Amino acid sequence: MRLYFAPQTRAIRPLIMFEELKVPYEIVPIDFKGGEHKSAEYKNIHPHGQLPALQDGTLTMFESVAICAYLANKFPDKRMAPALGTVERGMYYQWMFYSMAALEGFALDRERMKERFLVLDRALSGREFIVGNKITAADVMIGSGVIWLDARHHLLDDFPSLDAYAKRLIARPSFQRAFTPPSENAR
C-alpha cells in the first residue's frame, strides 16, 4: 500500500492508522510547497490535487476519513473499528463523520469551535477513547483534528477531558510519528 503524503496535511490521519495497525506501507512524499500536487501525474491519482491519496493494488482512493475507514475494515483483526451491528459501531460512524462535518467544518470560527470542543469534552468525560475501551479510527479522526485545531486556536485549557484525551493520543508513537517534522520522519 502506498500513502501519498506531505507534512501538515490530512495525510497524517492515514499515517497514524498505518502506525496503529502495524502493517507494511510505503510513503510517497509529495512536495506540496513545490506544487507537485498540482502536476498532471498526481492529478491522475487525486483529481483535486490534494492529500492524502492511497493506492492498494488496483484501488486508488482519496479523502482521509474514507481511507481510515477502509484501513480499519481491511484489517478487522486489528480492531480499529467496532464490530458491525453494534451500538459502538453506530457511535463510531457518528464520530467519524463528526470529525469532518462538525469539527473541521468550523475550523475558522472560534466560537463554534468552542461549542464543538464542549461536545467532545462531555463525550470524553470519564472515557479514555471516543468509542469503546480501545483506540479506533474514530480517535484517529477526532484526535488529529483536535490536536491540529488546538495548535491554531489554543482552546484545550478550557476543556479538561478533551485536553487529557489529546495528551494521551499525542503520547502514542503513531501520533508522534505523524506530527513529527518531515526531516525527522524518514522511514
How does this structure look, described?
This protein is an alpha+beta fold and 187 residues long. 49% of the residues lie in helices and 9% in strands. The chain contains 8 helices and 4 strands, in the order E-H-E-H-E-E-H-H-H-H-H-H. The protein has helices spanning 12-21, 40-43, 64-74, 87-103, 110-124, 137-153, 160-170, 173-178, and strands spanning 2-5, 26-29, 53-56, 59-62. It has a 4-stranded mixed β-sheet, covered by helices on one side. Helix 6 (137-153) packs across helix 7 (160-170). The two termini are 15 Å apart. 37% of the residues are buried.
Protein traits:
187 residues; 8 helices; four-stranded mixed sheet
Order of helices and strands: EHEHEEHHHHHH
Mean pLDDT figure: 93
Strand order of the largest sheet: 2-1-3-4
How many strands, which pairing sense, and closed or not: the largest β-sheet?
Answer: 4 strands, mixed
What percentage of residues falls in helices of 4 or more residues?
Answer: 40-55%
Going by helix content, strand content and strand pairing, the class is alpha+beta
- How many helical elements? 8
Distance between the termini: 15 Å
Strand-residue proportion: 5-15%
Q: Could you tell me the number of beta strands?
A: 4
Low-confidence stretches: 183-187
Q: What is the radius of gyration? A: 16 Å
The rough form would be described as globular
The quaternary structure here is single chain
